[in-house]
Amino acid sequence: MTYLYQGDVGVDVTVATGKDLTSASTNTLKVKKPSGTEVTWSASKVAGTGGNLTYTTITGDLDEVGTYYLQAYIVMGDGDIFYGDVVRFVVYDQFQEA
Fold first, then answer.
1. Which pairs from 47-50 meet CB under 8 Å and 24+ separation?
2. CB proximity list for 77: less than 8 A, separation 6 or greater
3. Which of 89, 36, 30 is nearest to 55 (CA)?
4. CA 27 to CA 53: how far, in whole Å?
5. Could you tell me the domains of the chain?
């Protein structure tokens, strides 16, 4: 990932889950923002990658400066639930040097 700045839109966030997502019925990324607010981003399966999920940020996703925590949340077709590893990334203030 490159440096991210507050207000960035169109950033592709890709997470490796290490799981076969063929039967997955829910593919989301749970996100905890620096303020502690928790949101969910609807992710898409990346074909042929062996379990990667991707999401492209929209307006309002990266609206806080600081450390974000992201975790895959997957529900399989049989009802099994899987949480991925936690990924951490920093969003900087505009004009702040990373």
1. 49/16, 50/16, 50/18, 50/20
2. 23, 24, 25
3. 30
4. 7
5. 4-91 (2.60.40.1220)
Q: Distance between CA 13 and CA 29 in Å, rounded?
A: 10
Question: Could you give the angle at the alpha carbon of 28 between the alpha carbons of 24 and 32, nearest 5°?
Answer: 150
71: Cβ contacts below 8 Å, ≥ 6 apart: 29, 30, 83, 84, 85, 86, 87
Q: What is the pTM of this model?
A: 0.88
- Model confidence pLDDT, tens digit, residues 52-62: 999 999 999 99
Cα separation, 86 vs 17, in Å, equals 10
